[in-house]
Amino acid sequence: MIFAAGLGTRLHPLTEEIPKALVEVGGQPLLRRVTEKLVAAGILEIVVNVHHFPEMIRHYLHDHPYPGVTFHISDESGELLDTGGGLMKAAPWLAGDEPVVVHNVDVISDLDIAALVEYHRQKRAVATLAVRARETQRYLLFDREMRLSGWMNHQSGEIRRPGPAETSPNRPENKWSMPSDQDLSSSGTAPGSHESAEKAHCSTAHEPFALQSEEGSSNSNNEIPGLQKDELPLAFSGIHVIDPAVFTLVTRRGRFSLIDAYLELAATAPVFGYRDLSPHWIDVGKPDQLRQADEWLSSL
Asked: 205: burial class by Cβ within 10 Å (0-12, 13-18, 19+)?
């Protein structure tokens, strides 16, 4: 699934006349670049959610078909549903036995999608989130096994742990049942080679990670108030893999954030991080980042 419903307000004035998904970088629309990345990983059925200038995206996909690829439009024209609500609305196209790759349309990277999916399968996870060691305001927290252990706002100091949000209504507890080896083998051959999976596993090794203060000095993760020993704060990359069981385990509906849902799931189900050590990752949500991406792609 490609998340393409955002308003793209950070890219004004470009997105005052076209949707963010059709903003060009390196001579191609963002939507085309993400599509090519997913197809290269063997994904041939793609759901695209739309909200801002939805007809322009429909027309683009109609006029620029990708050989062998089937597109489905999840229309959020009436209400922008955020990442969680957007995923749940697209469930009719995504439910089944195979893992679902979810990719933000404004993210360009060298991440090996096939290796991410293979890692997800090996971990038997309900969700696997690609993460990087980079500076940001909000971090996901992981234990030594790379299981999701919390969320942190580095600026405010707020830390949330797995479990229902305090403001959320009480919901029945959902239990996650680990798939058996037979279940895993019956799902077919996973994308990516065994070698790729080994590299993915090795990428979760715990190097000491430091957060940079405004003055440029660094603090080790053990010196950050509220963090547990050896807990890693890592930034979400906007690329993740889910097991279709998410569509029954997540009971929220309407507009909500997937990060909130993942924190709730992590209390009873395996939600993992995948340490992305690839050379390049960029969120082209702002004009200066768009220029950086253009420079990088033109150098290839």
From this structure: exposed
